Predict the 3D structure of the following.
Amino acid sequence: MEEREHLATHEELRKLCKPIHNVNILHKESLSALEKVAVKVTDYVGSMGFFLLIFFWTLLWLGWNILTPKDLRFDPLPALVLWLFISNMIQIFLMPLIMIGQNLQGRHAEKRAESDFDVNVRAEKEIEVILMHLDHQNELILKILENIGKDKDC
């Protein structure tokens, strides 16, 4: 009878378990084309490659307009108006796009955390069932040992 109870518990546990899904794939599939662009831009802008691109572009621009003869300069000192305008345009366009990408990445992180929690809950239930089975086996072993001891006494 007890064995059937343990088997029933095991079957109940199997019914409770949902199939495991790869959250990363599900998240990628749920993104629209524009959201995918936002995530790619956010990833690229947050890279060392983008920093170096902006850094060397700035060095080249400022170097050209400071060090070359005055008649070759296209963005005269001290204002450097064209450089400031282009830099501001880059910032204005990238800021909202980066924020959108960060929101999407945050949503992905939340989904991963939920998935991790579900896996931990499932593992806890499975461990509980294993412990119940081990307790049951210990009881059976003790009964067998008691029966062996009684048989020797007779």
